[in-house]
């Protein structure tokens, strides 16, 4: 979100759309790859919708072509898109992977979440820790 605000202030909207579209297509492809891996490694799990594997494999072939073409034609835009994705890695490690956080870090994360919810009107904020209940 912060990177988007900076790009909107500094750059133009066309560049931001290119960054976001590259990121979206990259995430779509990784999701389809996950579908194929799960179908191969765990074929017996329940699936409410089962698709012939030819469809995701065909999608991945076109996806790879478009992604490689994008990387070839606009490497700077793709590189910035990858950097934007990688900014989420420290957030993942601080928020999810690090289990034994000090209470002050938990309070900070909780207050930032509550503030973000109020700002964006996404969810009715429940400020206050779970430990208090």
Description:
The structure is a single chain. The protein is mainly α. The chain has one domain (1-120). The chain has six helices and no strands. The protein has helices at residues 2-10, 13-41, 54-73, 75-86, 88-97, 103-120.
Number of domains: 1
Count of DSSP H/I helices: 6
**Would you identify the regions where 5 or more consecutive residues have pLDDT less than 50?**
none
- Content of β-strand: under 5%
Order of helices and strands: HHHHHH
End-to-end C-alpha gap: 31 Å
Quick one: overall form? extended
Radius of gyration: 20 Å
Question: What is the compact description of this entry?
Answer:
This protein has 133 residues and is an all-alpha fold. It is built from 6 helices and no strands. 74% of the residues lie in helices and 0% in strands.
Summarize the topology.
Blueprint (H helix, E strand, L loop, with lengths): L1 H9 L2 H29 L12 H20 L1 H12 L1 H10 L5 H18 L13
Protein name: AAA1 protein
Keywords: Membrane, Transmembrane, Transmembrane helix
GO molecular function, one term: L-amino acid transmembrane transporter activity
């Amino acid at each position: 979100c912060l990177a988007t605000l900076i790009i909107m202030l500094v750059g133009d909207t066309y560049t931001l759309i290119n960054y976001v579209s590259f990121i979206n297509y990259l995430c779509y492809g990784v999701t389809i790859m996950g579908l194929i891996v799960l179908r191969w490694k765990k074929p017996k799990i329940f699936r409410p919708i089962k698709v012939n594997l030819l469809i995701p494999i065909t999608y991945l072939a076109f996806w790879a072509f478009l992604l490689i073409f994008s990387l070839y034609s606009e490497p700077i835009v793709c590189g910035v898109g990858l950097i934007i994705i990688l900014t989420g890695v420290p957030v993942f490690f601080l928020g999810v992977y690090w289990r034994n956080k000090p209470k002050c870090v938990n309070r900070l994360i909780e207050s930032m979440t509550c503030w973000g919810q109020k700002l964006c009107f996404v969810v009715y904020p429940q400020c206050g820790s779970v430990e208090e209940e």
